[in-house]
Amino acid sequence: MHLDHPDAYPHRHTYGAADPRRADGTRRALRIGLGGPVGSGKTATVAALCRLLRDELSIAVVTNDIYTREDAEFLLRHAVLPPERITAVETGACPHTAIRDDISANLEAVEDLEDALGPLDLVLVESGGDNLTATFSKGLVDAQIFVIDVAGGDDIPRKGGPGVTTADLLVVNKTDLAPYVGVDLEGMARDAKAQRGDLPVVFTSLVAEGGVRPVSDWVRERLAGWAAVSP
């Protein structure tokens, strides 16, 4: 059986990616994955989303790192959520292994959070830093965000790769650095459009007030659609 199949891990995971039910029949949280290269701003985006949405939604976070809990500890240090709402998976190999190939550790982490915290609205699953091929299994998340940054070069959208071309939302982060690294943001927008067609692209600068709002607006839209799915 292919590892992306929702029945690949029957010990815990008994629902498909579009099924709003948990194994016990109760409604589950919307799960959104965040991937992208090292240093693109994935953890900072997760932190900003938690700060903005935590008063209106019940949120939890699962982070992935190869050998450490570094991203989870960053979120804990900045108190973006209570400690019991943040957990870490140490993948022990390239991060895509745990978000795409063998997703059992992440599924267990998500389900443990829901068991411990009761009904959740949103679970953010952050991948460790990976390359442009990193994507999430549809058995793990319901939608995925791919984060790149302008300091990586304005040719990143042109290079494509599944992360850039197929993610439900592409985030081009650190736009405030564009003048210092000689990046043409309009050119990046054109290249992203050419690669992604009608799939959305947003540009962010998390150091600016309200900089994460384009992402949070998209998350709210996904939550509204998720609420309309009948259990």
UniProtKB/TrEMBL annotation:
It comes from the Bacteria. SUPFAM superfamilies: P-loop containing nucleoside triphosphate hydrolases. Transmembrane segments: none annotated. Residues 32-202 form the CobW/HypB/UreG nucleotide-binding domain. The keyword Lyase does not apply. Residues 1-21 are annotated as: Disordered. Keywords: Chaperone, Cytoplasm, GTP-binding, Nickel insertion, Nucleotide-binding. Residues 1-10 have a biased composition (Basic and acidic residues). GTP binds at G36, P37, V38, G39, S40, G41, K42, T43. Pfam families: cobW. It is found in: Cytoplasm. Its main location: cytoplasm. CDD domains: UreG. Homodimer. UreD, UreF and UreG form a complex that acts as a GTP-hydrolysis-dependent molecular chaperone, activating the urease apoprotein by helping to assemble the nickel containing metallocenter of UreC. The UreE protein probably delivers the nickel. NCBIfam families: ureG. Facilitates the functional incorporation of the urease nickel metallocenter. This process requires GTP hydrolysis, probably effectuated by UreG. Belongs to the SIMIBI class G3E GTPase family. UreG subfamily. This is Urease accessory protein UreG.
